Amino acid sequence: MTEIKKASAPRRKFLQKAAVGTVGVGGLAAPAISTAQTVNLRFQSTWPSKDIFHEYATDFAKKVNDMAGGRLKIEVLPAGAVVPAFQLLDAVGKGTLDGGHGVLVYHYGKNTALSLWGSGPSFGMDANMLLAWHKYGGGEALLAEIYKSLNVDVKSFVYGPMPTQPLGWFKKPISRVEDLKGVKFRTVGIAVDVFTEMGAAVNPLPGGEIVPALDRGLIDGAEFNNASSDRLLGFPDVVKNCMLQSFHQSSEQFEILFNGPKYNGLPAELKAIIDYAVQASSADMSWKAIDRNSQDYIELKKAKINFYKTPDAILRAQLVAYDKVVAKKAAENALFKKVLDSQRAFAERAGQWQNDYTVDMKMAWNHYFRPAKKG
To answer: What is this structure's pTM?
Structure first.
């Protein structure tokens, strides 16, 4: 009879590991399941819950939540749920909120340079080109420098190129530069100074307060952003004239903020998920904007809203006013000048390339949908 000896303790451990490995190769082993606890982050947007901008915020959160597989969950609250819209940066920096969704121009009161991410003509760059400057032209490092100077510990992601914004909604159409003089008008950021330079009396109201102010006659005109947001916020219910095209915010984008310690405490793979979710959301947001804005533009026309192209004389006056404003701001604020110079250098190079290479798509659109009349 053959004697069966018990294996020594070290050998038993070796054999057990080998057996597990063999079963794994055969595909019979149970899959590894992460036992890490879910990290829950509470975000707030700077937008009313019905606005498409709040939808963009929840779109980003869903992408992160889906890809994180239960390890990270972002909940997004609407504007005012925890703090007013213009207090988002402080709330995220202090940890009152874990993060937020808004625009850099809302932090204009902290440092005027923050408005350069989207307010003004951006030296002829559209929103996507300005994002290219931010990502590859030095903007990201400059933004971090500004936040450091403010002693605000946040991680910022800039994304989401917005379409050109209208000049605004007015009780009376604006046909001349002189028509802006004395008009009580809502805008934000550098646009406050630009419209003030052009003679308007400006009040920088948050998004949710604009339509009530128009309805009560506290302001005569206002700009917000796009056909979808303007329609949902109720602009067509109180004003019937909208002036299309403007340089005051022709290249704006969104910002996603994380509290610095909360973000830095995440493992590398979750940080990567956030980074790629931002990039995916940037593309998805721009596609959704085209789809929804064009549909809502049709609905606004059906509602008998009067749309006018902003006269070129007003657009040129905006450029002149902007130049005066930024010259003054650059003299007062070294970081403002640093950002401005960086944008100008990038725009000169990238803008020449885009302008030389890009065909006029309006020609093709007119060819198919507005053919020249014969005879």
So the answer is: 0.86
